[in-house]
Amino acid sequence: MAVTEAPRIVTSRLGYEDSHTLERYLATGGYEGLRKALTMTPQQVAQEVDAVSLLGRGGAGFPAGRKWSMLRKAPTTYLVVNGDESEPATFKDHLLIERDPHQLVEGVLIAAYAIQANRAFIYVRGEFALGLERVQGALNDAYEHGAVGKDIFGSGFSIDVVVHPGAGAYICGEETALLESLEGKRGFPRIKPPYFPAAIGLYGEPTVVNNVETLSNLPWVMVNGSEAFTALGEGRSTGTRLFALAGHVRNPGVYEVEMVKTTFRDLVFAPVFGGGIPGDRELKAIIPGGVSAPWFGPEHLDLPLGQDEVGQAGSMLGSGSIVVMDDTTCVVRAAWRITRFFWRESCGQCTPCREGSGWLEKILRRIEDGDGREADVDLLMDVCDNLAPGVSWPPQQTTICVLGSSIPSSIASAIRMFRDDFLVHVKEGGCPHG
Amino acid sequence: MTPAAGSGHLSEEIVTRARELVALYPHPRSALIPICHLAQEQDGWLRPEAIDEIAALVGLTPAEVLGTASFYEMLHTEPVGTYVISVCTNIACMLRGAYELLDHIEGTLGIRSGATTTDAMFTLEETECIADCGRAPCLAVNHRFVGDVTPESFDELVDGLRAGRLADEIPRHGTLVRVRRQGGLRVDDATISAEREAARSGSGGGT
Question: Number of folded domains in chain B?
C-alpha cells in the first residue's frame, strides 16, 4: 500500500484543540503567506497560483489560476467563496471551516489581492451554525490583527470581507445559483452563456467563485512556493486533496492524501485511513466524487486518486467524497435515496429535471417496495435518457445547470452493474435485503 | 402596503443588527436571507408581520421576501417547535442505519417526520446530508450537530432538552445567534478605487 509521507497542506493544525484560534494560527506560521503575497505584485501572485495547477476542489476541478485569468477587466470585481458544501457524503469543507477558519480567511485575502477584488464574500452553508461562528470569529480577529481591512500590514492594499449565511438549498453550491442567493433571491442557476461569473457575476460584475478547500491551499503555496506544491502528485493533479470517506468503512472521516500516489484501495483499506470494511465483508461498489458520479466496482480499487485518471475510467473525483457500500447493500434502495435527494433539491426551473427526478424517484420506490414491473428497468433508463441523452459520461445536458444531468449517474450505474438486483426485486415482489 | 421598518414586531435589537447587515452589501437585497435568520431567532419562524418588516428593511415587497424565503429549507413559513430536529437519511447515514434510527425517533417523540409535538417542543424533519458523515448516523438540533446517534443516545438527548440541561449547547433558533461581526465595513469605495487604479498602472501593490 502506498501511504506517502506528503506534508499536510490544509490539515496541519487539526491535531490542536484550539486550531481555530488566532493564537494557534500565528504560532504555526499563520498569515505569513499573505505577508509574502503582499510583497509581490498581484500578477506575480496569480502567476504563482497558475503555475501550481491548483485544480478546483469544489467539484468541477477547474484550475483556479485559469479561472482568475478569465476575469473580465472592469472597475469592480468580486471574490465569492463557495462554502455551501452540500453534496451528499462530502464533509471536508465543513471541517476546514470549523477547525481552521483563519487558513480560509488568509486564502481569501491572497486570492482577493491577486484578482484585486473590491470586496470578498464568504458564503457559508446556513446549517453550519458553528462554522459561521468560527469564520466570523476568525474574521473579527483578523481585522484586529491588521490582516484585513484598511492598508493590510501596511501594504497599501485594502479590502473588506463579509461572511454570508445560506439557508438550506443544495443547488446554491452551483456557482451561479450561489450568486443569485447572495443577491437575496431564490437559488436559480443562471444560463451560461452569457452568465459566466467571470464575465457577468455578482450584481453583474465580474466575479471569481472559489471553493473553501481550494483557497485553503493558498497560504501554504505562498510560503513554500509553487515547486514544493507541484512536487506532490502527478500530471495535472498536483498537491494533496481532502477525501471524505463514508459508508461501510471502519474509520469514516476526512483524510488528506497526496494526489495520484494514493489509490482507492489505500484509502478504503489502509489502517491509517478507512481501515477496511466492518465485519470483513466484501466490497460491492464505491461512489467516488459525490452522488453525481458514476459508481465504481472492486475492479477499480487500484485506480489512483487523480482527476484525469478517474475521469478516464468513466467517473470523477468531483467533490472529494467516497462512499463505500458492502455486499449487504441494496443498490435499488441506494439509487432510490440518491434520486430522492435530487428530486427534493431540484430548483424546478427546467422540465426534464423537475419532472424527471420525480418520476425516477417514484419508479425506484415502487421497485424497492415490491410493486415494480418488468418494464420498469427499461423505463428508468428511458427517463434517464431524457435527462441526459445517451446516458454517457460526461453527461449531455438538457437543463440550465448540471444537477439534472447528474441524476442518471447512480441509476444507470446500479442498473449496469447490478441489473439482476432490480429483476429480483420485481420477480420476488420486494427487497431481498429486507 | 409595506409598513415602515421597525414598526414594532421585530425587536429593537434585531432591527439594529439587521441594519448593520444591510450596510455590508452593495445592494440591501443581499441582506435578505441573513435578516430572515434574525427574524427566526426571535420568533422561530417567519411571521407575516416579520416578513413585512424585512421587506421594508431591504427595499422589497413582502411577496418578494416570501418568494425567496419559501425556497430555502431553513426558513420556515409556518410555526415550528422550540427544537427542530433534523435527521439525515441521505446515503452515508442510510448505510449506517438512519431509517431505523428515524423509526425510533418517531416512536420516542410520538410524531411522524414533518410534524410538531403538541407541546410545541419538537419539530421533526428528515433532512438531506448535513456534512457530518464521519459520525453517521447524525442529526442536528437547531443546526447544532450530534453524531454517532444511537436509539439510547437520542433518548438521552431528548431528556436533556426537555429538562433544559442543554440550553447552552443548543441555543434557540437562528443560525446567527452567536455570530457577531465586530464593526462594519472599514474601507470606503473611493479608497478601493484609488488602490485598484494604482495597482493596475503598476505603481502600487508591491515592492
Answer: 2
Q: Is B24 found in the same domain as B62?
A: yes
Q: What is the pTM of this model?
A: 0.97
Residue A106 touches partner B, C-beta closer than 8 Å: no
Residue B29 distance to chain A (closest CA, Å): 5
Over residues A299-326, the pLDDT tens digits come to 999 999 999 999 999 999 999 999 999 9
Instruction: List the grid coordinates of A200.
Output: 457577468
* Domains of chain A, first to last: 22-228 (3.40.50.11540), 234-326 (3.10.20.600), 331-428 (1.20.1440.230)
Is residue A127 within 8 Å of B140, Cβ to Cβ?
A: yes
The beta-carbon neighbor of B192 closest among A136, A158, A334 is A158
CATH number, domain containing residue B103: 3.40.30.10
- Are the CB atoms for B92 and A323 separated by under 8 Å? yes
Q: Is residue B189 part of a domain?
A: no
Q: A329 at the B interface (CB within 8 A)?
A: yes
pLDDT at B174: 78
Q: Does residue B197 sit within a domain?
A: no
d(CA A197, CA A50): 19
**Cβ atoms A135, B175 nearer than 8 A:** no
Full strand arrangement of the beta sheet holding A160-165? A160-165, A119-124, A78-83, A207-211
User: Per DSSP, what are the bridge partners of residue A124?
Assistant: A83, A165
Residues 144-183 of B with CB under 8 A from A: 144-145, 175-183
Compute the average pLDDT of residues B93-97: 98
The answer to the question of residue B4 being in a domain is no
Given B162, B184, B202, the domain boundary residue is B162
Share of chain A above pLDDT 70, in %: 100
pLDDT digits (tens, 9 = 90+) for A239-252: 999 999 999 999 99
Q: What is the rounded average pLDDT of the residues A232-240?
A: 94
Looking from the CA of A391 toward its CB, the CA atoms found within 13 Å total: 19
The verdict on residue B46 lying in a domain is yes
Give the 3-state secondary structure of residue B126.
strand
Asked if B134 is an interface residue toward chain A (Cβ–Cβ < 8 A), one would say yes
Chain B residues close to A319, C-beta within 8 Å:
none
Range of the domain at B39: 12-69
A126 CB within 8 Å of a chain B CB: yes
Please check the confidence at residue A1 and state whether its pLDDT lies above 80. Answer: no
pLDDT at A2: 66
The CATH number that applies at residue B64 is 1.10.10.1590
Average of pLDDT values for A260-275? 96
What is the per-residue pLDDT for B5? 52
Q: Do A159 and B90 touch (CB under 8 A)?
A: no
What ipTM was predicted for this assembly? Answer: 0.96
**Does B2 score more than 80 pLDDT?**
no
Per-residue pLDDT at B201: 82
Give the span between the Cα atoms of B71 and B66, in whole angstroms: 9
Q: Answer yes or no: do B87 and B156 share one domain.
A: yes
- Does position A184 have pLDDT exceeding 90, yes or no? yes
